[in-house]
Design goal:
Shape of chain B: globular
Chains: A mainly alpha (about 270), B mainly alpha (about 260), C alpha/beta (about 350)
CATH architecture of the largest domain in chain C: 3-Layer(aba) Sandwich
Radius of gyration of chain C: 25 Å
Helix content of chain C: 25-40%
Oligomer: heterotrimer
CATH superfamily of the largest domain in chain C: P-loop containing nucleotide triphosphate hydrolases
Order of helices and strands of chain C: EHEEHEHEHHHEHEHEEHEHEEHEHH
Distance between the termini of chain B: 38 Å
Structural class of chain B: mainly alpha
Number of domains of chain B: 1
Shape of chain C: globular
C-alpha cells in the first residue's frame, strides 16, 4: 500500500501549491478576515456597553474568542462542497469511480492540503496581525495550546465531513447552490462563530448541544479562551471524536446511494 | 425595446427549464428562506442580551433587515454572478457570449436569472410592515415611490460592487474568485454602522458601500434624522457604483484570454 | 470586395512562470515572473468574399487565437483587422450580427430545452423577423434533415445530430461570413460528408465566405480552394491547394520488389541523369521518389528489363503526407532543401 499512500500525500502537496498560485485570493483573504474580526469586535463592544459578563464571557474573553474563532475558520474553511457538486454536475465524477483510489478520501486530502496552506499562511500571520490590532489575550497554559491545536484539527475534519455531505447532495437535487449557501450560514451561526453557543436562549443552546456544529468552533474556542480547563478539555474533545466517527456513517450511506444512482441512471 | 424583449424570452426559457426540475425549485426557495431566518436568529439572540445596539432598538434593526431583503432579492434574481469564473472563464462559455449581438454582461445576467429569489424581497416587505407596525411608524404615500427608488438604487450598488469584483476573474487565475470571501461582509451594512470604528465605517460607506444596502436608506423610513443625508445619497451611490462596475467589466472583457488553446 | 482583411496581426499572452517546488511557489506568492508568448506573430492575409478558406496548423499553432480575434472574442495586441467592414472587437455587437460561429467542441444550444426553443431564442437575440426566420428554418431543417429532432432537448441528441443543430443555430440569421472551428471533430464519416456537402451548397447558393479550421485534411480537400497554414504563430503557407501539392508534393513514389538481389548502386546507375532518389530497406526491396517534372514512365523504362521485378506499386503523395512533412520541417519556405535533403 506504500505507493498508494504516497499518491494520497501527493494530493496534499499539489493542493498546497495550487493555493499558493492564487495571489489575489490570498491577499484579499487576510484583509477580509481582519475586517470580520473587526466588525464583530466592535459589535460586541457595543453590546457589552458597561456589562461585566454575558453568557459567561467577559468582554475581554469575547474579544479573544472572536479573534480565535475567525482565525480557526480561516484554517478549517474549504470549498469541498462546491468542488464535489461541480464534479457531479459536469459528470466527471463518473471517471472518479473507475480510478484506483477513493474519491472522498482524495477530496479530504485536497482539503487538508488547502488547510495546511491556510494554517501556515492565513491563520498564523492573521493571528499575529489580530494581536496587533485588537486586545487579544493568548493562553498562558501550554495544555490549552495543545488541546486547542488538536481540537482545531478535528474542527477541520468535521467541517470537511459536513461539506462532503452537502456536496454529495448534488446527486439528488439538480441545483444545490441554495443548499450550499444555507449550509454556510448555518455553520457560521450554529458553530458559535458569530455568537458563542452559551449566549443562545436556553432552548436553542439545548438543541445546539445535539448538533455537530458546536464541535467546529465553539468547543475549541472555549479551550483557547480558558473557559474550559483541565479534564474539561478531554470532555469536549470526546464530543468532537464522537461527532467525527458519527458523521462517517451518513457519508458512507450517501456515497453508497450515490453510486447506486450513478450506475442505474448512467452519467 | 430589444433588451426588454430579451428579458421575457430568457424568462420564458427559464420557466421551461425549471419545469423539468420542479423539486429543485422548492429546495432552493426553502434553503434561501432558511438562510434569511438564520440571519434573523443572530439579531434575536443579540437583543436577548441587550436592549439597544448603538442606540437602535430590536424592532429598528429588524426593520433594516427587512429593507435589506428587498434589494438583495432583486439583486439575486437579476444579477447572479456566483458561478461566473467557473462557468464562463474556466469552461470558456464567454466565447459564445461574445459572438452574440447583445451586451455581454446583460446576456450573462439573463442566462442566470433566478426568480425564486424574489420571494425573499416579498418577505422583506412583510418584515418591514410588521416591525414598522411594532414601532408605530406612520405610513405615508411617498413611502412607496421612495422605497422603490431606494430599493433599485441599493440593488445597483450591490450589482456594481459584485460586477467590479467579478471582473477580477478576467485577470486572476483562480476559479472561485474572491467573491465567496465577501460573503460575510455584505451582512455588516445591516447593523447601525455607527457602532464600528472610523475605518470600518468609511469602508462600509464608501469602498464596499454595503451600508447603503441597509441601514442608511432604511433610516429615512425609521425617522432617524441623523442619517437622512446618507439615505438620500443612495441613488447617487447606485449610479456611481454601477458605472464603476460596468467600466471595470468592459476593461476586463478586453483582457479576456479565452479558455484552452 | 474582401470579406476578411488581416494586416500584421499579433496576439501576445503574458504567461505566468511558475518556479518549481515549494520554495519557488512561496516566492511566486510575493513576486511573480511572467513570460511573453506570441500565440499569433505578425500575420497578414485577406480573403475575398465567397471564398472557402481552410486554416490549418498543429495544436497550439495559433489557429484558435486567430479565429477568436476575427470573431471579436479576443482583442489583438497589435495589427489591423477588418471583417465584413467592421473591426470586430470594437463594434462587437453590431459586427456579430453579420457572422456565424460554430465551435465544434462547445455548444451554443441550451442543454435542457428543446432545440427549437433555442432557435426561437436566438431569433430574438439576432433580431431576425418572424417571416425570414420561418423561411430560413424550413430550408435548413429540410436540407439537414432535422425534422423530428427539433423538439428534443440537446442532451438527448447524438454528437452528429447536435452538430447539425449547431450549424442551424449559427446560420439562422443568414450571416455572410461563417467561422467554423473544428466543425467535424469526432463525427463519423457519413455526417462529415453531409456537413461538407451542406457547406459547399451554402457557399454556392448565398456566396457565403467560410473560414474553417480543422485537423481533418479531407475537410480541406473537399471544400477549400485555398489553405493558410500556420506554425508557431506564423503563416508558413498561403495559397491554392493545388499549388501546395505540386510545389511540395514529393511527386510519385514507386516501390519495387525484386526476385533477385538488386543493390542500390546499380539502381542509381540505371536511372543516371534522371533527378530521382532511391532508398532501400534491403536488396530485394527498393523505393524511388520521382518528382513532378520527371516522367514516371521514363524511370520504369530504365529499370524494367534490367532487373528481375516481381511487383511494382505506384503511389501519389497525399495532402496528409505533404502537410506532415511541412510541419516536421517547421517551414514551407524552402521546399527544396527541407523536403529533398534527406535523400540527397
Amino acid at each position: 500500500m506504500r505507493p498508494m499512500l504516497s499518491a494520497y500525500t501527493d494530493f496534499i502537496r499539489i493542493r498546497f501549491l495550487t493555493m499558493l498560485a492564487y495571489r489575489v485570493n490570498y491577499y484579499s483573504g487576510i484583509l477580509i478576515y481582519m475586517l470580520n474580526i473587526g466588525v464583530y469586535y466592535f459589535t460586541w463592544q457595543a453590546i457589552y456597553g458597561g456589562k461585566g459578563e454575558i453568557g459567561g464571557f467577559t468582554a475581554s474573553q469575547m474579544t479573544t474568542y472572536v479573534a480565535v474563532s475567525w482565525m480557526a475558520r480561516a484554517f478549517y474553511f474549504n470549498n469541498l462542497d462546491r468542488e464535489i457538486a461541480t464534479d457531479i454536475r459536469d459528470g466527471s465524477i463518473a471517471i472518479q469511480f473507475i480510478r484506483p483510489y477513493n474519491y472522498l478520501f482524495v477530496k479530504m486530502m485536497q482539503g487538508f492540503g488547502e488547510g495546511l496552506f491556510r494554517f501556515l499562511l492565513f491563520m498564523i500571520p492573521g493571528m499575529a496581525l489580530a494581536l496587533l490590532l485588537f486586545p487579544v489575550k493568548l493562553p498562558s497554559d501550554p495544555v490549552a495550546w495543545i488541546g486547542f491545536l488538536v481540537m482545531l484539527f478535528f474542527s477541520f475534519l468535521i467541517n470537511s465531513q459536513l461539506n462532503i455531505l452537502t456536496g454529495l447532495a448534488a446527486f439528488f437535487v439538480e441545483n444545490n447552490d441554495g443548499l450550499m449557501r444555507m449550509k454556510r450560514v448555518v455553520v457560521d451561526l450554529f458553530s458559535g462563530l458569530v455568537i458563542p453557543i452559551s449566549l443562545f436562549p436556553g432552548w436553542l443552546s439545548g438543541i445546539m448541544q445535539w448538533l455537530p456544529f458546536q464541535a467546529i468552533t465553539y468547543l475549541p474556542g472555549s479551550v483557547f479562551t480558558g473557559r474550559t480547563k483541565g479534564t474539561g478539555i478531554l470532555d469536549v474533545f470526546g464530543i468532537q471524536l464522537l461527532w467525527f466517527f458519527g458523521l462517517l456513517l451518513p457519508i458512507y450511506l450517501m456515497w453508497r446511494a450515490a453510486r447506486k444512482r450513478l450506475f442505474v441512471q448512467g452519467g | 425595446m430589444y433588451y426588454i424583449g430579451l428579458v421575457f424570452e430568457y424568462l420564458k426559457n427559464y420557466m421551461k427549464t425549471r419545469l423539468t426540475y420542479r423539486a429543485d425549485f422548492w429546495v432552493e426557495v426553502i434553503s434561501d428562506l432558511m438562510t434569511q431566518a438564520t440571519n434573523l436568529v443572530f439579531i434575536f439572540v443579540v437583543f436577548g442580551h441587550t436592549d439597544s445596539l448603538g442606540g437602535w432598538s430590536e424592532a429598528e434593526v429588524i426593520f433594516v433587515y427587512g429593507f435589506f431583503m428587498v434589494p438583495y432579492g432583486l439583486f439575486s434574481c437579476f444579477v447572479n454572478l456566483w458561478n461566473f469564473g467557473d462557468r464562463y472563464i474556466v469552461k470558456g462559455e464567454m466565447d459564445r457570449i461574445l459572438t452574440r449581438p447583445a451586451y455581454n454582461l446583460f446576456q450573462i445576467f439573463l442566462e442566470n436569472v433566478d426568480p425564486p429569489s424574489l420571494i425573499g424581497s416579498l418577505i422583506g416587505v412583510v418584515i418591514m410592515i410588521a416591525s414598522g407596525g411594532q414601532l408605530g411608524l406612520e405610513f405615508m404615500w411617498w413611502h412607496i415611490p421612495v422605497m422603490l427608488l431606494f430599493s433599485v438604487s441599493a440593488m445597483l450598488i450591490y450589482s456594481g460592487v459584485y460586477i467590479t469584483l467579478t471582473s477580477v476573474s478576467f485577470y486572476s487565475d483562480s476559479p472561485t474568485g474572491i467573491i465567496p470571501l465577501l460573503y460575510n461582509i455584505q451582512n455588516y451594512g445591516r447593523y447601525p454602522v455607527t457602532i464600528y470604528n472610523r475605518f470600518i465605517q468609511v469602508l462600509l460607506t464608501w469602498i464596499l458601500p454595503f451600508a447603503f444596502v441597509g441601514v442608511y436608506p432604511a433610516s429615512l423610513f425609521l425617522g432617524r434624522t441623523e442619517m437622512f443625508h446618507m439615505a438620500w445619497l443612495t441613488p447617487v451611490m447606485g449610479g456611481v457604483f454601477l458605472a464603476i462596475g460596468v467600466v471595470s467589466w468592459n476593461i476586463g472583457v478586453k483582457r479576456y484570454r479565452g479558455a484552452g488553446s | 470586395m474582401k470579406a476578411i482583411e488581416v494586416e500584421h496581426l499579433s496576439k501576445i499572452f503574458k504567461v505566468q512562470q511558475n518556479r518549481g517546488g515549494l520554495k519557488g511557489a512561496l516566492q511566486d506568492l510575493f513576486s511573480r515572473q511572467y513570460n511573453e508568448v506570441a500565440a499569433v506573430d505578425d500575420i497578414s492575409f485577406s480573403i475575398p468574399q465567397g471564398e472557402i478558406c481552410g486554416y490549418i496548423g498543429e495544436n497550439g499553432a495559433g489557429k484558435s487565437t486567430t479565429i477568436k480575434m476575427l470573431t471579436g472574442i479576443l482583442v489583438p495586441t497589435s495589427g489591423r483587422l477588418n471583417v465584413g467592414g467592421y473591426v470586430p472587437h470594437e463594434e462587437r455587437e453590431k459586427f456579430v450580427r453579420n457572422i456565424g460561429v460554430v465551435f465544434g467542441q462547445r455548444s451554443q444550444l441550451w442543454w435542457d430545452i428543446g432545440v427549437i426553443e433555442s432557435f426561437g431564442l436566438l431569433r430574438k437575440v439576432y433580431g431576425v423577423p418572424e417571416q425570414d426566420y420561418r423561411k430560413r428554418l424550413d430550408e435548413l431543417v429540410q436540407r439537414l434533415d432535422l425534422g423530428e429532432l427539433l423538439s428534443r432537448p440537446v442532451r438527448k441528441l447524438s454528437l452528429g445530430q447536435r452538430m447539425r443543430c449547431e450549424l442551424v443555430a449559427a446560420l439562422l440569421h443568414n450571416p455572410s461570413i461563417v467561422f467554423l472551428d473544428e466543425p467535424t471533430i469526432g463525427l463519423d464519416i457519413i455526417v462529415k460528408t453531409e456537413i461538407r456537402e451542406f457547406l459547399k451548397d451554402m457557399n454556392r447558393q448565398y456566396g457565403t465566405t467560410i473560414l474553417l479550421t480543422t485537423h481533418d485534411l479531407q475537410d480541406i480537400e473537399a471544400l477549400c480552394s485555398r489553405v493558410i497554414m500556420l506554425d508557431e504563430g506564423h503563416v508558413i503557407y498561403d495559397g491554392g491547394l493545388d499549388t501546395l501539392k505540386t510545389r511540395w508534393g514529393q511527386g510519385t513514389r514507386v516501390t519495387f520488389r525484386f526476385g533477385a538481389a538488386c543493390p542500390l548502386d546499380r539502381l542509381r546507375l540505371l536511372t543516371g541523369g534522371l533527378d530521382v532518389s532511391w532508398t532501400a530497406d534491403n536488396e530485394l526491396h527498393a523505393e524511388v521518389l520521382v518528382p513532378g517534372e520527371v516522367n514516371v514512365s521514363d524511370v520504369l523504362a530504365r529499370v524494367v528489363g534490367q532487373a528481375e521485378i516481381t511487383d511494382i506499386k505506384i503511389t501519389e503523395t497525399t495532402t496528409d503526407e505533404i502537410v506532415r512533412q511541412i510541419y516536421r520541417s517547421g517551414s514551407a519556405g524552402l521546399p527544396e532543401e527541407s523536403v529533398r535533403a534527406p535523400h540527397a
